[in-house]
Automatic annotation (TrEMBL):
Listed InterPro entries: ATPase_NBD (IPR043129), ROK (IPR000600)
Protein name: ROK family protein
Gene3D superfamilies (alphabetical): 3.30.420.40
Alphabetical list of SUPFAM superfamilies matching this protein: Actin-like ATPase domain (SSF53067)
Family: Belongs to the ROK (NagC/XylR) family.
Length: 254
């Protein structure tokens, strides 16, 4: 396979930093996903060293896409809700180039990456019309997609609903920390999605993150007018979207 059809994606999360080589025709991994614990504290330098380890292990010398849990513009992170605040002051391109050497590195928000991947390789319903993709994990990430094109850096997890942020109401992190059953948690998710529906009126919601694997447990409990589609790429989405963005950085222009 020629290099044109390959991309390398990295997804940096609160607990794990993961990477894989991706076949960009199919969205499938080539070889194993490589995973390390995200270092603590997760400073840019420490995380960059972990990423370098993954890339060395994969023996990859091409471009790399890196998905991050915050607002990303060029070489800067503008928010750091679920990552070390030192990212806000770093030139992330310089920090990563210092260990990854001379190669193209593309940074993007993790939910934007996952949303792009879902559009490219997931449920065909995500490819047309106005879609809000949400990734529900430690926080809530969002990607706005219109006909498969991304409006980057939306942060719906931080939308205030009443006086609480959406991700403090209905993330999996909250479900876990409060020990909520699906029956207890579903009304919280409905409240959040109901507010998104009221304000943005998408044609569909696509829900990703770990919770999408268990959609049979919560989907029937929701009553909304907007169709809700569970994502199909599960925990592959962030890596695959990052690989796609590395190969075609125009996906995240703006
Ligand atoms: C961050 C988002 C991110 C989401 C999922 C939120 O707290 O603000 O940028 O996409 O968590 O990681």
């Amino acid at each position: 396979m020629c290099e044109q059809q390959l991309g390398f994606g990295i997804d940096i999360g609160g607990s794990g930093t993961k990477g894989a080589l991706v076949n960009l025709h199919t969205g499938e991994f080539i070889g194993e996903r490589i995973k390390y614990e995200t270092p603590k504290p997760a400073t840019p330098e420490a995380v960059a060293a972990t990423v370098a380890k993954i890339i060395d292990q994969a023996d990859w010398d091409g471009p790399v896409g890196i998905a991050l849990p915050g607002v990303v513009r060029g070489s800067s992170m503008l928010t750091a809700a679920n990552i070390d605040p030192s990212w806000l002051h770093a030139n992330i391109h310089d920090v990563f180039s210092a260990v990854l050497g001379e190669r193209a590195i593309t940074f993007l928000n993790d939910a934007d990456a996952a949303g792009l991947a879902e559009v490219a390789y997931g449920n065909p319903q995500a490819q047309s019309g106005s879609v809000i993709f949400l990734t529900i994990g430690t926080g809530i990430g969002s990607a706005f997609l219109v006909e498969g094109k991304l409006f980057p850096n939306t942060e719906l997890g931080h939308l205030l609903i009443g006086n609480e942020e959406a991700e403090k109401i209905a993330s999996s992190g909250v479900k876990k920390s409060l020990g909520l059953s699906f029956d207890d948690w579903a009304p919280r998710l409905e409240k959040v999605l109901g507010e998104y529906e009221r304000l943005f009126n998408p044609a569909a919601f696509v829900i990703g993150g770990g919770i999408s694997r268990k959609s049979a447990r919560w989907l029937p409990l929701l009553q909304l007018s907007t169709p809700i589609i569970p994502a199909t790429l599960l925990n592959r989405a962030g890596i695959v979207g990052a690989a796609l963005a590395a190969h075609s950085p125009e996906y995240i222009a703006g």
